[in-house]
User: What shape does this take?
Amino acid sequence: MATYANLYVDQGSDFSTNVFVEDSNGDPLDLSSITLSGQVKRTYQSETAYDFTITKQDTIRGEIRVALDSATSLSMHRGRYVYDVYGQDTIAGTYFKILEGILEIIPSVTR
Assistant: This one.
């Protein structure tokens, strides 16, 4: 089961957060054979999607970084979005959700 977390992003700013991925026993997930992907959409049915940049920070300890760059967050309208992050084990062929929740773009006053 995926972890649920709400994320808050200042519009026009770089955003990143690190997440530790665990298996069903609570042990760090070895990410050696895992490919990662994630998107943000206004609603689940929306055609427009914004891709996260996801990097493996520590493959053995299961640490990943989920990020949006400033150009992407600037192009998004203020308000709430939904997001999720998936992993796919290229050896076992399994596809699983790691993280999901609401992402809120907070408007900026200063430009």
